[in-house]
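Exam review. A common question shows you a sequence with its structure tokens and asks you to describe the fold in words. Practice with the pair below. Do the first one on your own.
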Amino acid sequence: MIVIAHVSDIHVDLEQRSADRTRAVMRYLEDLPYDLAAVLVTGDIADHATPDEYAVVRELLTSRHPLLVCPGNHDDRAALRKVLLPETTGTRPYAPVNQVLRGEGFVVALCDSSVPGKDEGFLEDETIEWLDGVLAATPREVPVLVGFHHPPVPLHTPYVDEIRQFGEERLAALADRHPHLTAFLAGHAHTAAATTFAGRPLLVAPGVVSSIRLPWERPVTHPHVHFDQPPALAFHVVGEDGRVTTHYRTVTV
């Protein structure tokens, strides 16, 4: 059984609240009696993308489990690389931050859907080509989970749907070419959600720092962002038949 923890939107700033909520989630994962196949953090890692914030993130995102990150619209590629992934900086600090984990019986590819200077998402051609290569190099019997920050479809959350991932037809075409692409994973929406994209499950992790109220949960004048809900995460379980089952959990701070 392959179990992957999925965390998103920790929005670490220099305030105690975001640190406490992120620490509670990571402590929950560390205290599990089971070794996870991976922990994924799908973007909006630092709130203002400052080096000081990423330094706090570096202390918080420590794990005995393999851990991968990708940027969100609140992140800065160069700053994230310098502090969290210094070995990837090279001569192109602003290149897309794409990471792959090849585990026993599965592959996870985290793609950079961030667009420097903008809030909406888009997978650059470089990232599409990289992902195509990851999929082509993976045997057809091995399930591949593909993650990013921005969902490529609307989720009935107007506050974030306007800045979702665009150019998604290129990703859908790639999925058509690679049937072992098993599921898509995303963050950004600050709400646990499950839908489909390109004939695959699209599984969205809830927010750690806050939750988004859906249109039918609030009056017109009510704020979108809800800070009183507990932090939460998703567990994606990949069965021997390649089927993905997702469980959502809240965490006590």
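Now try the second one, then compare your answer with the model answer below.
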Amino acid sequence: MEQNELYPIFLKLHNLNVLIVGGGNVGLEKLSFLLKSSPNANVEVVAKHFHLEIKVLAENHPSLKLTKSKFKKKMLKKRHMVIACTDDLEVNKRVYDLSRKRYLICNIADTPDLCDYYLGGIVTKGNVKIAISTNGKSPTTAKRLREFFEEVIPEDINQMVENLNEYRKTLKGNFEDKVKKMNEITASLKNKE
């Protein structure tokens, strides 16, 4: 059986520089996804034309910059991650190849072979965030799982997280003792009785 070997990480996009090449429907989708999860993400979108909703997002997100231009390789300087989603496969492939030469992680929309990462489904309830991946095989399944988790995870889970954080700060002893105490207090989360 094939297994998902992706390594999930949670990036602080307000500390990184993201480039999106493409300002159409797919660019809007990728940008909206990033900003929904990380509203203060540092993102520059480069395109010859911008979807109207991208312009609206730029008005509401000061860390979002729109550059009306065709892609140039110098635009990759001082970037951490790149997304290319133009309707020109040659431009997307060029972005990918140039990104790889600079050791930048890159995602080419709807082209799994040209992706170092995928943008999966995300559930956010306060400080709790769950990322869902189908290894790029079925975004619809990730969407349905996201909807499921949004329904079953209680809205007040953030209060529990805050309370546990405060309790954790009061714990004395070495790391192993603290882990043991936190495991004991959170054991009821996995027990169904």
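Model answer, second protein: The longest helix spans residues 139-152. The chain has six helices and seven strands. Full marks require stating both points clearly.
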